[in-house]
């Protein structure tokens, strides 16, 4: 057993979205919250919490060739761990991590829902390693169906 074998599955078919169009980060959160809540992944407090946290600690990374946003919030707003993946139609303006004055054109949103306060560090490192691979991001961009994107995630992101 490796260090991260004890984690439950984090990718779910119902949380993979392709070519969604959003005006800004808040519009994305308004879209995803009812889906997460209906499927039992988050609590009713999630929407306000994720918006507030993203304003304080923005999450867009200048990865190449596509910018990735990694929003997440505190564990008390999560019911079941998950990673939701959304490929944006075009891009959505998102504030850069550690530089709230810079706005980047995010093409992918990996919304993270973790249950352990510090236990997600290894998961996050694994995910970031994959997302820094331009070839992998290009494959995600070329996926024609959510099932193809899911297969790429399950094949390349090993927790």
Would you kindly provide a written description of the structure presented here, covering whatever features stand out?
The longest helix has 14 residues, at 25-38. It is built from five helices and five strands. 33% of the residues are buried. It has helices at 25-38, 46-56, 121-131, 134-142, 146-156; strands at residues 16-20, 60-61, 67-69, 82-96, 99-113. A hairpin with a 2-residue loop joins strand 4 (82-96) and strand 5. It has a five-stranded mixed sheet, with helices on one face. The protein is an alpha/beta fold.
Topology record:
Blueprint: E1 16-20, H1 25-38, H2 46-56, E2 60-61, E3 67-69, E4 82-96, E5 99-113, H3 121-131, H4 134-142, H5 146-156
Parallel strand pairs: 1-4, 3-5
Antiparallel strand pairs: 2-3, 4-5
Helix pairs in contact: 1-2
Q: Tally the helices.
A: 5
* Overall form: globular
Describe the strand arrangement of the main beta sheet, using strand numbers: 1-4-5-3-2
Distance between the termini: 11 Å
Beta strand %:
25-35%
The helix/strand order is: EHHEEEEHHH
Tell me the helix content: 25-40%
Largest sheet: 5 strands, mixed
Structural class: alpha/beta
